[in-house]
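User: structure tokens for this one?
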Amino acid sequence: MAASQVDKARPAKGDDPQLYLPREPVIIALLSALAVVLFLAVTGLSRLYDAQQESLGNRWFARGVEDLQAQRFDRAAVEFRAALLYSRDDYSYQLNLAEALLGLKRTNEAYAYLITLWDRQPEEGLVNLELARIAVQQNETDRALRYYHNAIYAAWPTDQEGKRRDARLELIEYLLRINAKTQAQAELIALAANLGDDPAQQLQVGDLFVRAQDYEHALAAYRVALKSDRHNAAVLAGAGLAAFESGRYPVAYRYLQAAVTGNLNDAQSAARLKTTELVLEMDPFQRQISAEQRNRIVVKAFTAAGERLKGCSPPQSSALPTAPPSLAESWEKMKPRITMAGLQRNPDLVEAAMDLVFNIERQSSTVCGTLAGVDQALLLIAKLHEGS
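Assistant:
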């Protein structure tokens, strides 16, 4: 009986725990290998899914870029939105969608994307440039200037110097449109400092300096352009204009004469050349002219001023200043003495006669409108010698 109970208490041969001990590492290894296989399978499937999503996104994006370049903005917007379904945070997708929305004139939607992109990368060039353009449309000058300057000094992925130059040129055009000439001049000086000797670029900058009424810098730019293309009629005409407007008439004469020779159809340069010739002919205060030549010029100028007085018939509501003595009375009183002999006897009359001539030309231009020919030349000579 006791022996039977002992036999019952003993485990069966197959249930002996000692038999499991050698098998446990094998089981663990198998389970670990299975886990690794399953993990790799899931990872592979996940990567395959991500790659498929990326491929679909890139495919839609490529279509959008093609339509955006062809200015099919409506189609491009749809395609970029489709691309964003596969990669919602992709920077390029959002930026190009903003570009398409701008093309569709949906400025507010584009702005929402652009300002979000700016928060992510405030140094990105194109984003700043587009934000500047939106600010221009909304007449927000300070904001436009800030974003333009950001774009000028921003990071550009390709052709950085070219993109920065283009951004500054766009800013200059904007400043000229709003008549901010002083600011435009400052931007042009900064632009010119970084330009090479390329004649096309120097011509462009010279023309912009003329529009900003900075004629000295304009002339300098044209001269750089002429170093490599000295027969370029457009550059010669620009140089002649800049020299003319800055009162450098001998220099203007040389450039304008060359410009007209190079382009016989340049009517503006031809007219400017004729006026320049008259200025050089009618200025009695030029150096290296004889007393006789100076006196002859004064007599001619005095006679021309008298003719201007007679031909200037202002409306009854306006008249030339009549504070005694009037211009006409002063001219009549001085007339007998303004002869070759009279000026030879009294050289001091030269300045008195020319002061009256200049006064007549200034005031008659205000009352009777634009001058031409000799009268225009005399007015320019008056400006040339103001304060001297």
